[in-house]
Amino acid sequence: MTALCLLKLLRQATRKENRFTRSLCGAILAETPQRRILSEPSLVVPDSTKPPVLGATNPFCTAVKSGADPKRKAAFGSVGRRIPYRILHVINENGESLGNMHRAEALKLMDQHNLKLVLLRESAEPPVYRLMTGKQIHEEQLRRAEKKKASAKAGRGPQVRKELSFSSSIARNDLETKTKQIAQWIEKKYHVKVTVRQAKDSAADMFTVFDQILKTVSEKATYLSKPKVIKEGVSTCVLRHMSEKELKAQQKLEKQKLENSIPVARKDENEAPKSSELNQ
């Protein structure tokens, strides 16, 4: 009987202890979100032999804390007085090397000549800086921008290509029509591949046909790929639109030819009366 009473009392004590534990844990879990500021609650186990302890830890992150990208290339321009290196290799505004010097001496030269210091090669040992005028920096920035623009344009992919194919015995009217079509494509800056097949029982020179086409569109076009035989009886070439630089050079050449031909014509006019006088 006594044993039963003791067992009953032990069960009641165990129940009260369980209720107290549940209420305590509930209070802690209810207060934890309010106390949490930035991090999530997690179990921290400092020692495997000890029970887990409820606490807060900082989240793990591999991102670079600073906003600057270390691989980002600085823009071309004046560095002002922000020089992290003690010894520099300095080039003057005329492109002449002044040798290695202390940064204080380089800054002194910059102030004396009212110039700006520009970083050219940071990877060199020591780093290379150049003294430049504001105009020189501006011109160099424009040059680099044009180069970058041209590189981006070249990297867009292959130029659109148009193709024409016909026989070497093509009629004159048909050749003129095809040449007009080529001129329209060249005007749109397409690459035009022209293929000529040697007709049977025809002695026509396929390369002569290419020359006739190029002569007609010579104001804007030139060979991207010169005429060549790709297989027996078949020749091909690729025409392209000339660049602005090529167009200016061609216009300059034509102007020179015109100027050189004018004195010859005037000389012939002056010599004509003399020959007539001799006949009299």
UniProtKB/TrEMBL annotation:
Biological process according to GO: mitochondrial translational initiation; ribosome disassembly
One cellular component (GO) term of this entry: mitochondrion
Main location: mitochondrion
UniProt biased composition (Basic and acidic residues): 249-258, 265-274
Domain Translation initiation factor 3 N-terminal residues, every copy: 80-146
Molecular function (Gene Ontology), one example: ribosome binding
Keyword field contains Transport: no
One of the Pfam families matching this protein, by short name: IF3_N
Protein keywords: Initiation factor, Mitochondrion, Protein biosynthesis, Transit peptide
Region (Disordered): 249-280
Keyword Oxidoreductase included in the entry's annotation: no
Stored InterPro entries: T_IF-3_C_sf, T_IF-3_N_sf, Translation_initiation_fac_3, Translation_initiation_fac_3_N
Gene3D superfamilies the UniProt entry points to: Translation initiation factor 3 (IF-3), C-terminal domain, Translation initiation factor 3 (IF-3), N-terminal domain
Subcellular location: Mitochondrion
Family membership noted in the UniProt record: Belongs to the IF-3 family.
Protein's job: IF-3 binds to the 28S ribosomal subunit and shifts the equilibrium between 55S ribosomes and their 39S and 28S subunits in favor of the free subunits, thus enhancing the availability of 28S subunits on which protein synthesis initiation begins.
NCBIfam families: infC
UniProt name for this protein: Translation initiation factor IF-3, mitochondrial
Gene responsible for this protein: MTIF3
